[in-house]
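Morning. Coffee machine broken again, so started the prediction first thing and wrote up yesterday's gels while waiting. Chain of 460 residues, entered below exactly as on the submission form.
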Amino acid sequence: MSTNSRRKFIKQLGSTAALLGAGSLSGLAADPAIILQPEKRISPNDKIRIAGIGMGIMGFGDVNTALKVPGVELVAVADLYDGHLEKAKSVYGNHLFTTRDYREILERKDIDAVVIATPDHWHDTQSIAAMEKGKAVYCEKPMVQQISEGHQVIATQQRTKAVFQVGSQRVSSIALAEARKRYLAGDIGRLNLVEAKIDRHSALGAWQYSIPTDASPKTVDWDTFLKDTAKMPFDPVRFFRWRNYQAYGTGVPGDLFVHLITGLHFMIGSKGPSRIYSTGNLVQWNDGRDVPDVMVAIFEYPETKEHPSFQMQLRVNFADGGGGSEYTRLIGTDGVMELGWNDFKIKRHKLPKAPGYGGWDTFNTFTKAQQEAYIKDYNAKYSEADRAQIKTEESAYKSPAGYDDRLDHFTNFFEAIRNGKPVVEDATFGLRAAGPALAANESYFQKKLIDWDPENMKIR
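Came back before lunch.
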């Protein structure tokens, strides 16, 4: 990219980023909304035996959801904190095999699949090792911590032919599937801008997770947790709040941007942006973390055969004194689609063919004779249909009460194991979502615009 084009792109950021402050479309369409119905699937009775690797918040959540799928049985769990292993036995039964060493799980012949929900810096190592041992893998997002690791995961999956699915469940949501349908049907016209935000104002929302009173070098395998990062004395804050540190996590982009990118790529069939710029600050949570709590990123998507060129603006603010809110909007020439988690709304407002006249217009500065001449010419040029004002159309869609997209995501995963059905989020899709998020971190810490190669999934 030339120096001039870089300057032009960065100069535009001041005006475009400001759009992220716009209000939501709440109240866009009144109930009743169109209720979407999930596909009714009955899984076979043959058992699939799973193990959980990493039994923190996501680990327990994923395992609990996986066990709702008929024919799935939990055999073992691994975690570096003894308390999590004890908790697992109390929840799932004393028969459960527990270990600090995930490699013991991979050696077991009675385990078909593993659910990996460990800190980000362990994802690639454990995913690759599991596939090498013939296990199917469900790996939490982001798929990897470093872009180069993603290519290694892809290569391993392609070589071993193992079932591998990334755990960003939105791609299995019936609401997102319907939103994709509506987008492809042209309901919002030509896409030109995507804006999304996830703002929070709570300690837990800012990853200030509770730390057990018995955390110590005796109850935690600290050295294994550190892996290949800098060696240091035991620190329970780093262990239980690992998302706050570059060494173990991926910050705002890896935890939250990746959800938004994943959903967008699924909807429009995109391979990713070509330029990325992010900025931010550490505003409120000065707790020793070395990642920002406020970040805004601009992603420039080039025109492809799948979609037109457009810009995406993402924001996360953990210091939102308004209490926090979130939305994802796809803005087109004929309408706007606002996504919730398992619901969405569409507002359509097509421009009439005739531009109109009067109001804030030079027409009012014409002489009377010129106004009459202009109206005569205007009426001859545009038909009555061309001059008709287009009525705004509003619609809303939502999933039924109690719907769980993560359950559908696990159902898809286990169907791939049983029937050879393609997974909905394979390793390549996973890196196409994680890569731009990780590149946003590169932009923030290096204070520069990042050129991204969406086809080959690497920084240029």
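The domain at 48-170 is CATH 3.40.50.720 (Rossmann fold). Going to sketch it on the whiteboard this afternoon.
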